[in-house]
Amino acid sequence: MKTLATPTSRDTADCGLFGPSSVTWHLHADPAMWAGGISALHLQALHPLAALGIVQNSSFETDPFGRLFGTGSFIVATTWGTRARAEQAGARVRAVHERLRIHDPRSGAVHRLDDPDLLLWVHCALVRSNLHAVQRGGLPLRAQQADDYVREQRRIAALVGLAPGDAPGSVADLEDYLAGMRPVLTASAEALDIHRFISRPPLHGPHRALRPIWSAASRLGYSLMPSWAHDLYGRPGRPATVATGLLRAARATALLVPWRTRLGFPTRDLHQAVERLGRTALPSRRRLRGRTTPTATDRSQ
What we know:
Layout: H1 23-27, H2 33-44, H3 48-57, H4 66-80, H5 83-99, E1 101-103, E2 110-112, H6 116-137, H7 143-152, H8 154-159, H9 171-181, H10 189-199, H11 211-223, H12 227-233, H13 240-254, H14 259-262, H15 269-277, H16 285-289, H17 296-300
Antiparallel strand pairs: 1-2
């Protein structure tokens, strides 16, 4: 049986990109992150090139959960994995993006999937969706902690090929970026196809039993988007109070599941991090509340 590392061994253990003193370490363990991931899929598709990139370069029609689980695996590896594992995950993403292209049938232009503007949109839509979901779900974050989270995510931006300073460094910067992108966004034919597919994927065989659960989760994730995104799609989300109530109920239920089960999917990077760093490295609301100031590394990002 493996023994957990003692707290005193943490000074020499590999804390990865973030470590237990970061907001990211604790926030990414929140169950509401799954709703944030689904919300991000709907939001990201509103960028015409992003939607074309998904339709032309992914297997979402045959693998309805692949993109969500792939994003989840990347988040888990880069949050709790060793620095080497995080860098390997980033290298894999960069390698895939580097070789793929987007063909715009309307203009005839060919775009790189690793175009910095497109990478920035995908990054910001995901950061906004995750942060908003956990806050709506009931995770108490001070304004400074929310800013710290956005700033910490610059490290992820660097992993996928962006210059860290090009990504927002605060919630205000993030919201300013999203507001500036609104003239670019539209519910293109591809975006509507993606939206319909996310809402009701063609589940077959034993997966058919998941259809009601997925449909409810997809509608909840859609409802967590900004109201202007609903306007672009031409379909309202659930009333804000209803969406918040459903999210908090689902989150409370998920928190009853022991952490080894709940946070062992899609990979076991957190389990391995606790083995390296000790049980005091377990994400918790209490430890997050006790984090009052950003670390020196946070301030340098």
